[in-house]
Amino acid sequence: MFLFYLAWKFILPELIVVLRTLFFILLPFILATIIVVSIEPLVGLFTARLKLRRPMAVLLAMIIVIGSIGSLLTLIITKLVTELIDLSGSLPRYFGPVQAYLTDLVEKGKVFYFHLPPYVTEQMPKSIDTLTKWLSDLANAAANFLIQTAAFLPEAILIIFIMIVATYYISRDRRQIKNLWLKLIPASWGEKSLEIEKTLLAAFFGYLRAQLILITITAVISIIGFYLIGAKYYLTLGLLVGFFDLVPVLGPAAVYYPWAVWSFINGHIGLGINLLILHTILWAVRHLFEAKVVAASLGLHPLAVLFAMFAGLKIFGVAGLILGPVLLIVIQAVFKTTQLAKGNKSSLPLNR
Q1: Model's pTM, two decimal places?
Q2: From CA 291, how far away is CA 46, in angstroms rounded?
Q3: Are 88 and 142 spatial neighbours (Cβ–Cβ below 8 Å)?
Q4: In the listed set 181, 202, 220, which residue is the last one of a domain according to the structure?
Q5: What is the pLDDT of residue 301?
């Protein structure tokens, strides 16, 4: 029990710091490896069909893929930052009406809780003040987030630069890196390590592909729907819905339902009905594609995904919401590959 306490109190926090630091050090190279695997079919096409040398094929594939993704992200981020700045300035204007509404609701509800102790009834207005203060702090936090994001830009540019350079060299010298790896490890591990690599990449990209498709469907339908119903911050809200699509159990409903309820309370019946209709359409379309898309991934129980997301959040921060499930996929793939290797070994005839 004492050893467990020492590990929990001293070793685990230090281990988390080391893992987090190691993750951010390796981040450009992790991203580069993902891009290398993604552009490999295009590189193979250029070398086979256009008869280009591999360095030129890699460079052309990088320009097409990274250029397209970069242009799209630039457009989205520009619009998103504009909406967030406007939203952070608009939020404080809503706090007055919200506080007035909650105060009026408490006054009307006094007839229902007159039998409660005086201390409880006195604390309710204070709780409302606390709630509105929390909302105000939330608005200030949004503004501070924008400032911190701007301060992170130089480091982000450095990470992107290293990622691009690493992508080129890893892709160009892929065979040499593979041969070097096989020379560094024992011969008996060579084929097994390549099999594990193949399984890991298939598992990782299967999961990533499934999640990206589902998130894209959710975000695109939400953005278009919010735009059609006249929502002011349609892009920000649509991307927020796409982010919540990562969260098991809650999902997009965590945005749609509270917004619809608040619309009904404020008398915006049409907006509330439109939100419920839009969420129903989103639910139907998403479930129509989900079975086919998720079949491409390994498939994980929602509880396991929820645990992996929470653990990832605690260890790696916000990035852990995505990294946690990915690491779970990796662990599952390694376990399956190891079990398969043991099964194949046990099925071999014994030497006599």
Answers
A1: 0.61
A2: 34
A3: yes
A4: 181
A5: 67
